[in-house]
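User: quick one, fold this
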Amino acid sequence: MLRFLMLIMVMAVIAPTSLQAQKEKKKKEKKEYVWKMPELTNNKDFDTYLLTCDTLNTRIREYCDNIVFYEVKKIHETDENGNVLMDENGQPKEIYAVVDSENHIRGSKEAIFQYADMILNGTNIILDMANITLLTASATTALPSLGLNAFSYGKYLKAGPKLVQYGGQEIKEILTKCRAQAKQIRAYKNSFTEAGELIDPQADTSNLDGVNLNDVPTITKPSGELAAELEKAKQENANAKDVDTDAFDEDAFDEEVACR
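Assistant:
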């Protein structure tokens, strides 16, 4: 009997904790709000709100779904049989390069420009989210004038805030990664030639402008493919635009949001 009572007491303690953990897990996994555009109501204020939500949702989804990330990797050169080539010191013949998600070599200057553009676009979306707050208030005031339709359209008053909450969270996570990857690639660009070799052979690759490139992943590429991709990356850099480095300043972003 004593064992039975003790078991009940233990279960009473564990059960709430387990349920809470499950709730927290579900809460963490839910990061995206699914929006579906309803029919317009012919009420100007409410329809303006709906159309703005639809536009904002489109911008968020296009932005988040079309992001391309780059990173620095070591590349070991191989022969036609896949054997890693060795240098005169008997070490694997390797270079460093900026690659995309498919491990194709890309121009570092072009990658940095694209990161600046991604950060600018993401920042603008977040700043424009402020409009939803005002439009939600107007739509709330307009809701009673929809008559019986007010019951079915009332749920959409939550759409704007949810788009801001979940969409804003997604974009901010992307911006954080963009800034981190851009910092890595900028350090690479300042320290390596377009051929992927250190400008200063004695440079400490564990601390290049505060970035550690010692532990980056290693991939292999055949000599012919490596040469062709390096040449293509060189052309990308030649055509790339210069970048305003203020785009990578997180403090400047926070100040701009505060001003809104």
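User: anything notable?
Assistant: The first strand starts at residue 71 and ends at 78.
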